[in-house]
Amino acid sequence: MQPTEMTHFKITSTGTLIFQRVLQIVCIHFCLLSGFIVSVSAQPAIHPQLIAIDPGHGGTDTGAASLDGTLEKDVVLSLARRLETYLTPDYPTLLTRTDDYRVPLADRVSLANHADASVFISLHTAGSRRMQHQGTVIFCHHPVDQLRPAPPATGTADGIQSWDTLQEPHRSDSLALAGYLRDALQSLGFPLPVRLSDIASPLLSAADMPAVIIEVGHLTHPGDRALLIRTATADRIAGALAEGITAFLVDNGNAAP
Asked: Coil, helix or strand for 237?
């Protein structure tokens, strides 16, 4: 009877693990459907110093476009893959999309939250009807209406928080991250002005970690477009972003082991 009992024990243990994983997935989907995002920042990190990289747009959502048909969704996905290559020797990474398909905003930031990412970088390009508009803008979240009543206290006994309050405790760190990224990009010496700005963003407001949106140049500006689609310069831009992220994590006590 001993072999039978041992086999039964193994099956029961495996079944328990599968049940726990299924239950976890069900809970995550329930929170998404209910309009809430689960904050896991109080739990041990699944992947220490995980970097979440969000290539904007995708699928039928093409984003900005240049006169020659270069699309934002393609440029930022290529840049995200380059950035991932620079980071992976030292940090684990998570891409919110890995190919040409659309991912809803709530799902993008939810992936980063549930993976307990240390940083969230959303990559975009800008576009304008005025071709002289150029340069990079790094956005941090800032609520548009400062006169509204303060939101109720966040956090409950079951660890669930409202999506629009998660970024608040990370605002100063997000500003610091933006500064590191600006300095790294400016060090390239490209004719690509870099400035910081605020934005009321439902994407950033739901991020439970330091988070920024980067518009890496204007696709509608010929000079910016050339820098973004040329392999050598795009590679240097990705390398500078990786340097900025790494410097931020090192200086804030989150250096890779």
From this structure: helix
Give buried/exposed letters for 132-169 (b at 16+ CB in 10 A, else e): eebbbbbbbbbeeeeeeeeeeeeeeeeeebbbebbbee
CATH superfamily of 35-251: Zn-dependent exopeptidases (3.40.630.40)
Measured torsion, CA atoms of residues 92, 96, 98, 101, in degrees rounded to the nearest 10: 180
Closest by CA to 229, choosing from 185, 86, 221, 54, is 221
What are the sequence ranges of the domains in the chain? 35-251
Is the overall model pTM greater than 0.85, yes or no?
no
Residue 152 DSSP class = P
Average pLDDT of the residues in 26-55 = 55
Residue 203: which of 137, 140, 246 has the closest Cα? Answer: 140
